[in-house]
Amino acid sequence: MRTEHRGRHGGGAVRGAAPGAGPEAAAPAHGPRRGATRRKLFDAAVTLIAEQGFSATTVDEIAERAGVAKGTVYYNFASKNVLYEELLRDGIDLLAASLRDAADRAVRADGGTRVDALDAMIRAGLDFIAGSPSLTQLYVAELWRTNRVWQPTLQSVRGRAVAVVEDVLRDAVEVGELTEELDVPLTASALLGMVLVAALDWLSFQPHRSVEDVHASLSRLLQGRVSPLRAD
Q1: 138 falls in which pLDDT band (50, 70, 90)?
Q2: What single DSSP character describes residue 17?
Q3: Distance between CA 47 and CA 111 in Å, rounded?
Q4: What region holds the HTH tetR-type domain (predicted)?
Q5: Domain extents for the chain?
Q6: CB of 194 closer than 8 Å to CB of 162
Q7: What are 85-120's pLDDT values in tens digits?
Q8: CA separation (Å) from 90 to 12, 20, 39, 47, 176?
Q9: What DSSP string describes 87-135?
Q10: Helix, strand, coil % over all residues of the chain, rounded to 5
């Protein structure tokens, strides 16, 4: 499996080691070793939960898949719920950052329009999902559940990802690239949802297609439905 997370992981750590914690649990609260351990736990958890579901996945299995002692899991996360909550926060924050970087490059570095920025965000989203398919699958699945303790966190991180798209849409309206009648919040949600669902469909049912091919199709949809139609 491809590595699901490549960025930093932070927040929510339990400072005291749980009973039975192994050698890794005695690592300093911060530093490369702690970060590497948390990444292994994130990767193990997202893989197992994607394979067999959240309820069926145990802390013992996460620890075994990550190659660490069970106590190490509790040293880094107070519970399986906290681990998964932070996994969602970390993953969607990374997605939001990749979208923002792509938009900034398209406008500031390449001198493109805001619609070009939206197109660049589509490509960045596809690239991110192709590298983290299990995380994306879990995120999409959890959006439809209402009985999870991490729902407030999920709504918060979703809002941060959507806000990145909203910012570009509002800029496009302000500079006259898009009509003032545009429903910015709904359009932002629709664009993000389009990328998420289309990417999962691509990876699950059309894996023979290249990311360039999928991006080209979504780009044509963007150009025809969001941006003003060009006069002949």
Answers
A1: confident
A2: P
A3: 39
A4: 35-95
A5: 23-78, 81-225
A6: no
A7: 899 899 999 999 999 999 999 998 888 999 999 999
A8: 11, 27, 10, 15, 35
A9: HHHHHHHHHHHHHHHHHHIIIIIS---HHHHHHHHHHHHHHHHHH-HHH
A10: 70, 0, 30
